[in-house]
Structures are given as structure tokens and as C-alpha cells.
Amino acid sequence: MKSSDIKNKFRDAQLYITAELESWDGIAFFNEDQWNRDEGGGGFTRTIANGRIIEKGGVAFSAVEGEVTALMKEQLKLNGDYFFATGVSIVLHPKHPRHPIMHMNIRYFEIDQEQYWFGGGIDLTPHYINDELATSFHQSLKSICDRYNSEYYSTFKAWADDYFYLPHRDETRGVGGIFFDHLSAGKSISKEQILSLCLDLAKAFPSLYKNQVDRFLFPDFTPKEKEWQNVRRSRYVEFNLLHDRGTKFGIYSNGRTESILLSMPPSAEWFYDYSTLPNSEEEQTILKLKKGLSYL
Amino acid sequence: MKSSDIKNKFRDAQLYITAELESWDGIAFFNEDQWNRDEGGGGFTRTIANGRIIEKGGVAFSAVEGEVTALMKEQLKLNGDYFFATGVSIVLHPKHPRHPIMHMNIRYFEIDQEQYWFGGGIDLTPHYINDELATSFHQSLKSICDRYNSEYYSTFKAWADDYFYLPHRDETRGVGGIFFDHLSAGKSISKEQILSLCLDLAKAFPSLYKNQVDRFLFPDFTPKEKEWQNVRRSRYVEFNLLHDRGTKFGIYSNGRTESILLSMPPSAEWFYDYSTLPNSEEEQTILKLKKGLSYL
Predict the structure, then answer these.
(1) What domains, with CATH codes, occur in chain B?
(2) What are B55-73's pLDDT values in tens digits?
(3) Confidence of residue B219 (pLDDT cuts 50, 70, 90)
(4) Residues of A numbered 174-233 whose beta carbons fall under 8 angstroms of chain B's beta carbons: which are they?
């Protein structure tokens, strides 16, 4: 399998996802920007704003290559001289505080045309956690993982708990999902199967998101709910700028800033020492932002 | 000079600054939180919100000590076993988009009671750059630096240009100021003089800020100006979470999160690929966010 085949399938996945989300949102469309990276490669960044459901969202495809610079070696712990990387990344920020943020990423990395690996992840960040919807999300992820290896879901779920975590807040980003990295062919899986797993995740994204929203449509929100959404969005900003590997990779490999920071919410608020009211729904959400919770 | 003397003088500087800012703002007061760090030391965090001028601000004092952990060695490049660090940090976010954000930090660091150094910095981030006010700010800093060494201003000004810089935006954070680090006694300056320089900077802060505001009082702002303020605030967030050393030190030394993230603005907005109108005041500001501009 050539890296150009993977790149083409990733680009197809991006087009599929945006077409599905457009027809569902119904009022907003994705704009596409093509960009080139001076050192090699480029991408297509698709963005949407002010839709029926989505306030700000992006589905980015990129395929970049070039020299592994000293900065990349130091900051990204890469060994080798030449890299190729392709991936699809999505973050959707809904208008309504009762609808969740959802993120998905699949990526393929090659060094010196010898080593390669895949990575991927999908996670759900409700502003208000709904147990039923969190369970539905995890069940769907398990059924996708189970097509490939019966241990993947539990391994990748635990990995997501560790990865989508803000140590300085002692909070998970949301109700988790799955995360994996450095996955290459071995006894139990071929390169084609790993690619297929990545594509299954990508193609499941639109229906996973619709399922979170369509089953629970809400009336207008209160200013208090909007404030809480902005507080949760500020934590999303903190995670992405302090910890997210894709953001770091983009910044340190001299990627396109607007495509890297596509994940930023439309707005965020910081209050000093914000506290939730006892027994409020906001407090109930905070109490569930913990590692190791089972949703099955 | 004992480290406890430095700590006491830093705490006094915090109290002086907050008293001055309170009497000037006139309607809001600082709240004080005392906190302790499990591994040693603690601090007093003073915060203000919804004042006449200041929407959200903080003046933090801390004095922490303890083991230099493996994480601190790796992430902060510290050599040694035991550290002591004390400092005062300020960030003020004004309500009005025509008033600037201002930041100041002074710090003293000791390793194994042998090595020590001081650091400091002050920088001005107008949402709309006003040349006259930027010049006034730099002139005041130069006059403080000149009391100690005629080369400090130009050296520390260039250091600030390099430090308060967002590579992924190719923008400086604002109109700069001064920055220095790892300053210890030598032929041309004693330890007492460096401390005195730090304290001069801290004590100048209230009048420097008042000067930015009182000379230019504005009527109500437009929604467009507020939006632009929120865009500039998003860049402030990016700088602090991606680059700021104080934030990194706080996070990696297991400091108190709410005190570390005191610098966050009350709100921020991200638009995909935001662009300014040709010849607008917003564009004029962007064009001046460059290193190496002289304000004298």
C-alpha cells in the first residue's frame, strides 16, 4: 500500500464527512481553503460557521512532508531525516450548551519511507453530561473496535482517559472515547486493516454526532447555560494549547496556523476560581470528569 | 541578603500595587486568597473583577520551594536538587477595547542555596495601538533601566521583542516592553541593585497603567470594537498557554492552577481566518505587531 493511497482515502473520508454534516445541518455549508506548505505538501481545510446546530466547526485534511528539523526532533521526539504525514481532524462546536463538542482525528505517519504508524482518536465533550448519550457513544465505538480486535476498545478507551486529561484541573476533557497511536501491522492486524479501522471511525463520525443531537433537541438556552458552555470551552482551549499532540505537531512542523487552531471554540470565558452550585447540573458534570468510568 | 528578605519585599510590592490600583479604579476591590502548596510554600492571590476600568485582573504573590522533580528538570531545564522561587505577577484586562492589557512579573530563583538569579518583565498589549502611549510607556521603562545601567533598556527591550512573540502568528503580543532573566550580581551590578530594579518596576506599575488609561478616556465602544478586543484576547490566551514561561513553570511545578491562569482574559473569541479591513484601525494595529520597532 502506497502512502499516496492512504492520503487519497483520507481525503475521500473528509469529503464524505462534510457532505453528510452539510445535508444534516441544513442551513450552513463548508467552505474549502487549499493551502501549501513551503517545505512540502499542504492540505484542504473545510470550515463551517453559524449553522442550525454547529456554531463553528472544521474538518481538515492535510498531507505534509519534508525534513525532520532539529525543533521537531526535540519537541516531537522524532528520529529520522524525512517525514510524511497525512491526516483528517474534526472538531465541532455546537451553538446549544446542551449539545456536545465532538472531535475525531485519524493520522498516518512515515519516517524515511521505512517506519510507519497510524494513530487515531475520537472523543465526546458534553457541556452537560448525559449518561445515556455517553453510553450510546461508547457502545458505538466498541462495536467498531470489535470488528478488528476484541481488546482494542478497552485498551483504546483507557488510552483516551489518559490522553484527554487536564492534569492542572484534575479533569478529563469530557466523557472520553478512544485514542491510539504508533499502531503498525503485527501478528494480529495488517496495515490494510489498520487503515480500515481509521476509515471506519472517520465515516462513523457524522452519525455519531447526529445521534448526540437528534435524540435530544432542546429549546432556547438560558444565559447561565451559555456561561457554563463558555467555561467548558475555556477548558477545551487549555487542553488543546497545553497538551494536544496534533496542535504541537502543527506548530512545531510549521504548519498552517488557521488549520491547526481550527479546533478553538468560537468563544470562551475565564472566571477566577469559578465554582458550581451544590447539586447543580454543572456540579454533576464536573463530578463525572474522571478517568476510569465505564459507560458500557 | 536572605531569600526571606526578598520574599518580604515582593509581598510588600504586591500590597502596594493593589492598594494603588484599588484607589484609582474606585469601585472594585481586590479579594485575597491564601494558598499552600503541598510540596512547600504557597502564596497570596489578589484578584479584581468588574471595576470601573478593570474587567478582570490579578496581582499574585508566591513563594514556593521544594525538590526539583524529574518533570521540572526535563521541562524547565533546571539542574539541582532543591529550589526556592518567589515572584509577583500582574495581568490587567480592561473592559474598554481602547484600553490596553498590561502585564508585569518579577521573580527570584534559588537552586540549592548556591545559584540564584532574578528575572522580570513588563509589557503592554493594546487592542488598538496608539503610538503616543506606546512611546510614553517605553520612555518610562528606559528611565527606570537607566538608573542601573545605560545598556539595560536596549538589551531588555530587544529581549522582550523576542520573548513576547507568537511565531505561529508572526506577531508580537503587543508593543513590547522589557524582559530579562538569569540576572545575577557581576562587575556592573550588585544583588541589592538587581532587587531594587525589580522593585522599581513593580512599584511603577500602577502609574504606568493609569497613564495608559487616564490620558485617553473613551465613550462607549461599538460591537465591532468589542469583537476585535476578543480576537486580540484570543492571541493573549495562545501566547500564555503555548509560550509563557511563568505559566509553564506553574503547571510543571504543580502550582495552584487558578493563580497560574489568572492571566487569562475574561473572554476570548476565535474566528476561522479572521481578517481585518484594508486601512482599518485594526489593520494598522496588526501592521505594528513587529519586532524591532523603536518607540523612543
Answers:
(1) 3-287 (3.40.1500.10)
(2) 999 999 999 999 998 888 8
(3) confident
(4) 230
What ipTM was reported for this prediction?
Answer: 0.94
For residue B167, the chain A residue with the least C-alpha distance is A251
Mutant choice from B93, B273, B275 vs A, greatest count of A C-beta within 10 A: B273
- pLDDT for residue A78: 84
Among the partner residues A242, A264, A270, nearest to B265 by beta-carbon distance:
A270
Given a cut of 50, the residues of chain A with pLDDT beneath it are: none
Nearest residue, CB atoms, A257 vs list B49, B169, B269 = B169
Q: What is the structure's pLDDT at A113?
A: 85
Could you give phi then psi for residue A251, rounded to 5 degrees? -65, -45
Q: Which residues of B touch A29 (CB under 8 A)?
A: none
As a whole number of angstroms, the distance between CA A153 and CA A158 comes to 8
C-alpha cell at B94: 480592561
Q: Which residues of A touch B58 (CB under 8 A)?
A: 272
| Inter-CA distances, B260 with B51, B60, B248, B253, Å | 21, 9, 9, 11
Return the amino acid letter for A109.
F
pLDDT at A25: 94
The residue from B99, B103, B127, B138 that is catalytic is B103
Give me the DSSP letters along B206-231.
HHHHHHHHHTS---PPPHHHHHHHHH
Residue B33 — φ and ψ, nearest 5°?
A: -110, 130
**Number of A–B residue contacts, CB under 8 Å:** 76
Q: What is the pLDDT of residue A215?
A: 84
- Cα A57 to Cα B209: distance, rounded to the nearest angstrom: 38
pLDDT for residue A68: 92
- Residue carrying the nine cell digits 481586590: B30
**Cβ distance of B269 and A267 shorter than 8 Å:** yes
- The answer to whether B71 contacts chain A (CB < 8 Å) is no
Under the banding of pLDDT at 50, 70 and 90, the label for residue B245 is confident
Kindly report the pTM of this predicted structure. 0.95
Whether residue A120 lies within 8 A of chain B, CB to CB, comes out as: no
Nearest to B234 by CA among A147, A41, A56, A217: A56
* Contact by Cβ (8 Å): B208, B143: no
Which pLDDT belongs to residue A72? Answer: 85
